[in-house]
Structures are given as structure tokens and as C-alpha cells.
Amino acid sequence: MIFYFSGTGNSQRTAIQMSEILGDEIVSMNKYLKKGEKDTFHSEDPLVFVAPTYSWKMPKVVDGWIRETKFEGNSNAYFILTCAGSVGNAAAYAKELCAEKGLCFCGLALLIMPNNYVALSNTPDETEYKGILKKAGERTASLAALIKKGEPFPEIPVTFKDKIVSGPVNGLFYTLFVHDKGFAASDACTACGKCVKRCPLNNIRLVDKKPVWNGNCTHCMACIGGCPAEAIEYKSASRGNRRYYIMED
Ligand SMILES: Cc1cc2nc3c(=O)[nH]c(=O)nc-3n(C[C@H](O)[C@H](O)[C@H](O)COP(=O)(O)O)c2cc1C
Ligand code: SF4
Ligand code: SF4
């Protein structure tokens, strides 16, 4: 069974490809998080968790969702973190999570995909992102082959710097950066409601036909990246950054 969380579509795309290759069922964590629902899942096949990398680690919302969810049947768990280049020491935390959940950790693989951090960094242009997605598709197929054979993902070498960025830097990142106070919509907003519908944490509502953010944000970039009118900015930091969104609704 393949579980995915995705802000702008990279991890969703990977999960869909994986389910096509493995012929396995796919579950959107976004939907469960949005509804605030919990469930028990029974799978005869290995569990495959696909998510973005947030500050060199699995997103906190994904870690929390896995902790609160019951898994029955096959307890082998694979993790695929889509990222712009590095997952640091993320595997150690996924391994710890598996030990706590009684799951058998079968490795964490990084999958390089286009950077989606529209709020605070520039995203690749169209030619560049198409090239990155092509390579990512090939890597997804090779990771699926390992899962099919029941082999673990190869270990990612970890440096002292990786331990620092996935540890204390990750903690500081959430405290200092992961807030929604910087988001605002300009007069270009058409009140289409897409940001409201797409926010996986139900953190946005329309007030007087303008989005208002409600303080529960994980910086997934679905709102700013997916706004069809490009009406959303994050303070002045997002100005001029190319919007990135390939999520299938
Ligand atoms: C809040 C945030 C933090 C990120 N941190 C990292 C990181 O530590 N390392 C990295 O390589 N990419 C990082 N990225 C890039 C994303 O992990 C990457 O673009 C991912 O594929 C997005 O997946 P999605 O489209 O499924 O949401 C970050 C992006 C965001 C929005
Ligand atoms: S997605 Fe954009 S245009 Fe639509 S309501 Fe949100 S801010 Fe306005
Ligand atoms: S408010 Fe925007 S960035 Fe924050 S969780 Fe919702 S969609 Fe993602």
C-alpha cells in the first residue's frame, strides 16, 4: 500500500508512478489530514510512504499521521523522500519511528525532484523541471524494482553536518520559518477558493472574498504554488519566484 503526502505534486506523482508499477493501492494522507480522520489500514504488500523533505527530514505532519495510524498485515516499511537535493539524516528518524510503531524499516531513499519552496527560494524553469522529472521517473522505477524483490533501499551515508541539519537546524527551522503570517493575497485574487480546497491542513478560509490564513501551516506551498491568479505572496520573499504546482486535484 502506497501512502503519500504532497504539497505541490512531486510526491503525489511519485506515488502514482509507484502504484502503477507495483499494481498497488494508493492512499492520500492529504485527504485524511484535511478531514482530521484516523483509520486502520490492512495491507498484504509492503507499506511505502512517499513525502517531501522539509528541512532535511520527513514533514512533522507526516510523522504525526503515521504515529496515529494503525497498520495491519505486512509490516515492512519503505520511505521515499522527494527533495531538491538532500535529506540529511532523515533515515535515522524514520527508523526510530518504525521501531516505535512495530514496523520493519526497509530503508529511506531520496528522490531528487524540482524545488517547490516558492515562498523562500526560486524554483526551476520549465525546461529544467521537465529534465528533473524525467530522471525522477527512472529512479522511481528502480526503487520500485527493489520493493518488488523485497530488498531494502541502500543506506545513505551520513555526515556530521547531516546530523546537525536534520536535528537542531530542523527544530529551529520550524520555530523561525514555518508560520503563515507572511502569506497575503493581492487584488489579483478572483476568490476562486482553490487555495481553501487544496490546503491539506484546512488552514485557509475566504473572508470577504479574500483568503485568510488561520495559524496552522506546514509550509507545503499548495496555496502559493497553486493559485491560478498568482495572487499569493509570502512577505516580499516570494516576489518574482516562479510558481510551482503539478498536483492532480
Ligand atoms: C518547507 C520546505 C522545506 C524544504 N526542505 C528541503 C530540504 O531540506 N532538502 C531538500 O532537498 N529539499 C527541500 N525542500 C524541497 C521539497 O522537499 C521538494 O521540492 C519536494 O519534492 C516537494 O514535494 P511535493 O511537491 O510533493 O510537496 C523543501 C521544501 C519546502 C516547501
Ligand atoms: S487560489 Fe488564488 S485566486 Fe483563488 S481564492 Fe485563493 S488566492 Fe484567490
Ligand atoms: S496554508 Fe498554504 S502553505 Fe500552509 S499548509 Fe495550507 S496550503 Fe500549505
From TrEMBL:
InterPro entries: 4Fe4S_Fe-S-bd (IPR017896), 4Fe4S_Fe_S_CS (IPR017900), EFR1-like (IPR047964), Flavodoxin_dom (IPR026816), Flavoprotein-like_sf (IPR029039)
Pfam families xref list: Fer4_9, Flavodoxin_5
Transmembrane segments: none
Keyword annotations from UniProtKB, A to Z: Iron, Iron-sulfur, Metal-binding
Recorded GO MF terms: iron-sulfur cluster binding; metal ion binding
Highest taxon listed in the record's lineage: Bacteria
Residues in 4Fe-4S ferredoxin-type domain copies: 180-209, 210-237
Name of protein: Ferredoxin
Natural source organism: Robinsoniella peoriensis
